[in-house]
Amino acid sequence: MGDEEDTRTPASKSADILAKIKADAEKRRSLTKIGEKEKNVDDHKDDLKNRNSLPEDGRKVKKRLNDTAEEEEKAQSSKKRKKSSSGGENVEKEDVHDEFPQKKKKHKKERKNSCEMCGDDINDKESRQVIMKKLSGDDKKGDDKDNLEPSKSKDKSPTKSKHSEDGKKIKSKKMKQAKQESLEDKKEDSCGDDDDLLSEEINGKEVGGFTVLGEEKPKTPPQLGRLLPDWLASPSLVSADLSASSPVETLSSLDTRLVEKLKENGIIDFFPVQLQVIPEILSEVHYGYKTGVAGFRPSDLCVSAPTGSGKTLTFVLPIIQALLNRVECKLRALVVLPVRELAAQVYRVFQTYCEGSKLQVGLIAGMKPLHSEQRTLVKHGYGGYESLVDIIVATPGRLVDHITQTKGFDLTALRFLVLDEADRMMELLKQDWLLEVEKAVYSKGRDPPGPLNVRNSYHIQVPFQKLLFSATLSQNPEKIKQLNLFQPKLFTAVGGGTNKGGALVVGGISPSLDQKQTDVNSKGASSLRENNNDIPGKYTMPAELTEECMECTSAERPLLILHFLLNLKYSQILCFTNSKDSAHRLCLLLKLVGGFTSQEVTGNTHHTKMTKAIKKFSQGQIDILVCSDAMARGMDLVNARYVLSYDPPKLLTTYIHRVGRTARAGKEGTAITFVQDQEFYHFKKMTSAIRRTGLNKIKVPKDKLEPLVPKLQAALKKLSFKIPRKGRSKIKRGTKKGK
Ligand SMILES: Nc1ncnc2c1ncn2[C@@H]1O[C@H](COP(=O)(O)OP(=O)(O)OP(=O)(O)O)[C@@H](O)[C@H]1O
């Protein structure tokens, strides 16, 4: 396009050149057209593009013309300055040229040369200017260059003159002025509010014959508040303070047989969560397990209470009481837990409190082969299959195995479904175990919950109630929705105030919901939201727990353990690592040092070995039990006094469950977390939601650790022989295969 315009310019030699370029390009185009007749329009466009890129000569000419025009304008402006002013900058610039006539000549020569090359008529100023404007399309650039040119020439001069110095001063003055102007502009811009007002005033008005439409400013959206379902927003509050307990007799609705059992097992008082939740469950079985209150289906319950606050008995007791007077043995209660050791633990509690009654409890957690578990669940009688159990404690995987493979395994009479460690169970929902259970429950003519109609009003609908328990229960409505809860009710623990290490209950002591809401929105709570993407205000820590954070290097960690065991004579220590390998290595090392008893318990440990180790630890026969996070949840190690986190946990929930292995049932306990310098910030931030006071770092003086170094080094030397180097085992295996 630009080329076409140039041809239309007044007749000049430069214009001729441009015409030449155009003609050249035309030739090329025509040649390509002849050569490629069958090419489509796109090819033609490409050709035009090539045309723009091909005439290198033309570009050169354009450049030269630019240079020439610039030079000409410089000459013109210097002449004008000469005429118009007698002082200041212009005078100085004139002088520069006057002083250096050679320079002037050189400029002229350059112009002449360039014109010889391009064939332009340099005397035709008008044409040159027009060409210049057309080609460059930017007059200002040329002007700027013009302004700079004299100073450039000055710099190149062999001697520095007075004038040139003056010129510099003037230039710097100019620069300052420009700076000031730009600063003022910026100031104006930064006065946001005033500016906004101004623009609003101007907006829609006539300015210089134009209507100012103004800019559309983005409006900041109003901040959204938390909008929760009613049952989550207004939970029933339970005190986390275990000292606020009441004698077991205070629960008048509890069967006397169970009260006796409790006393036999040394339980004299009920903890707050038990005092509140047991009557709630019992109220729905007052007229038997077959109907809810007034024939309505009972609400599902969610209970969030700190670790070691007695949640297990909270569901064990009312379930047993509901089924105590049953006539026919049918599977009516199902308790699901994430791991088999936990399932075995809860199974033992059920057995303890069912002892002496006709109720039968079963365990299906994969500890025995499937067929031997099947024999304990159902038998084939005269009238078909009969259930041998009233209550089953299960892990989700094995439960699904029985639903799909065990003949006569019938869930249609199920009254209670308990999800202990419910937040973990929600994570396992991906395995669809709950869908399988619900499918089995609503089969063989049992109607799923729905509106009352003539058909279902004729026969009694056994209500199906879900009970959820956890110390870190997710109150994220999206997650909870997956559980298909029916008119759920939430019991959440609050209270206690700060514990000895500064950790506290998120929410604080709050008799009223309003108070709780205030605390929920506190700074700590908001960081919890950040960490977990969950609704805050749900995690509580045992008030008897003392938390410590020990700053150390990676190499110092085993030394610190030796210091605790050998110098401070600590015992009943649970030591958590972040991996099985790490636990294995540490346990080996500690055994090599000697002087105390240690044992390892991880996900790889066989369950009989694990049960033995837990028993020994509870009896005080093991000083330190090194474990992975497989042991972090739910395990009731009654005598654990110290919880060491050899590696700091990555998640807040993991931390809560780890430290919750101590300070249980109102007993004192200490949690010590080893934190390296670079890990401290993350750890502090992660745990900030469960503490109100700052987290203090403790350091053991080096002089206390140094005497232990030779012992550790000797053990490490032995350990290097015990643990094969990377690849050694592979090589061995490889050679075996080769053989
Ligand atoms: N009322 C009570 N009085 C004294 N001890 C109790 C009482 N209730 C439960 N316990 C004991 O407290 C310990 C912890 O109970 P439990 O295992 O039920 O806690 P939990 O809340 O389920 O903890 P976690 O969240 O870690 O699983 C158990 O040893 C249990 O026997």
Automatic annotation (TrEMBL):
Residues 1-199, 516-537 are annotated as: Disordered. One of its GO terms (molecular function) is RNA helicase activity. It catalyses: ATP + H2O = ADP + phosphate + H(+). It comes from the Eukaryota. Residues 516-534 have a biased composition (Polar residues). It is an enzyme of class 3 (hydrolase). Its EC number is 3.6.4.13. Residues 292-491 form the Helicase ATP-binding domain. Pfam families: DEAD, Helicase_C. InterPro entries: DEAD/DEAH_box_helicase_dom (IPR011545), Helicase_ATP-bd (IPR014001), Helicase_C-like (IPR001650), P-loop_NTPase (IPR027417), RNA-helicase_DEAD-box_CS (IPR000629). Residues 19-67, 90-102, 135-169, 178-190 have a biased composition (Basic and acidic residues). Residues 560-706 form the Helicase C-terminal domain. Keywords: ATP-binding, Helicase, Hydrolase, Nucleotide-binding, RNA-binding. Belongs to the DEAD box helicase family. RNA helicase. The Q motif is unique to and characteristic of the DEAD box family of RNA helicases and controls ATP binding and hydrolysis. This is ATP-dependent RNA helicase.
